[in-house]
Amino acid sequence: MNTSQVTTTPITTAPVTTTPVTVTVSGAAGRISYSLLFRLASGLVFGPDTPVRLRLLEIPAAVVSAEGVAMEIDDCALPLVASIDVTDDVDAAFDGANAAFLVGAKPRGKGMERADLLTANGAIFREQGRAINSHAADDIRVVVVGNPANTNAYIAHRHAPDVPAGRFTALMRLDHNRALSQLATRLGAPVAELDGVVVWGNHSATQFPDVSYLTRRGEPVTSGLEQEWLAESFIPRVAGRGAEIISVRGLSSAASAAGAAVDQMREWVQGTPGESWTTVALPSEGQYGTVPGVVTGLPCRSRGAEWEVVEGLEIGGFQRARIDASVAELVSERDAVQGLGLTD
Question: I need a surface site. Which of 1, 20, 268, 275 has the fewest CB within 10 A?
Fold first, then answer.
């Protein structure tokens, strides 16, 4: 029996002067997507005059829940929503997609070994990568949110050989935002006044939130960030913020992850302001001593709706050691998925 279900809801209030953008969201019935979809529908990412066609992709067992989310979006009567499709057919979900948020992933269960997690997610992101390669629009841009995000992005892009590698990114904007928030609190400064943060490496406990280039209102920050605080409080707290939220709230981060995904795609499409940069995890070309091919966090600016890695930053010994440790973890994950046959 064919379990695929597709529902299409046309919305007649969308502007007709702009071609709609087709946006696919996987794991559409989950908590992160629930926060994400309404922001996409409101114009925060693609602009206040650009309508969107939403494609909600779910596993068969969750299609009905995703249809409930679509009903709520309908009930908001958002003028930018051109249509909503709900499906468990991966090819239909990515047909003509201009942007994709790959949120759905297999969480680590009790007694689950690392290889089991990589195998389960590898099957998901291999299939989605192939569908993107075969069916997405030529300008497709992908943000992988589901963890392990960097390696899931690596798997997806390896199965989309016709799509430029730089179109596959993993969500490290959440780590970037967490770092900015902690620094703003420490310095007693508005977040908007700070720039120059980068989170190198993996979206994991090995990540390296780096303040070496931090500025406030364009001036280098030279006080208030003692090395002891950075090493013993700031770096581990940013890296462990997700676990901290779970311990306090009893649930994993959802709204903040959705907000970061919105930030990453918005600046990708609309450009980063001025000379500011953000953190994006994308397939490395060996910049700053990273290993080519692995999806690693790097300082990036968006120019012409494409990410460009910021060049010319000096790397000291402490930075080198932290970057190398996180990249080594990514190489280990890459080798593991290759050993499991997930990139063939």
Answer: 1
Q: Is the pTM of this model over 0.85?
A: yes
Does 178 share its domain with 282?
A: yes
**Residue 2 within any structural domain of the chain:** no
Assess contact for 34 and 71: CB atoms under 8 A: no
Q: Alpha-carbon distance 327 to 335, whole Å?
A: 12
What's the order of all strands across the beta sheet hosting 219-220? 194-195, 215-216, 219-220
Cis peptide bond N-terminal to 190, omega within 30: no
Identify whether residues 75 and 140 lie together within a single domain: yes
Do 180 and 162 fall within a single domain? no
In a domain, 1, yes or no: no
Q: What secondary structure letter does DSSP report for 293?
A: T
Model confidence over 199-256: pLDDT tens digits? 999 999 999 999 999 999 999 997 889 999 999 999 999 999 988 998 999 988 999 9
203 catalytically annotated: yes
Q: Helix (H, G, I), strand (E, B), or coil: what is residue 59?
A: coil
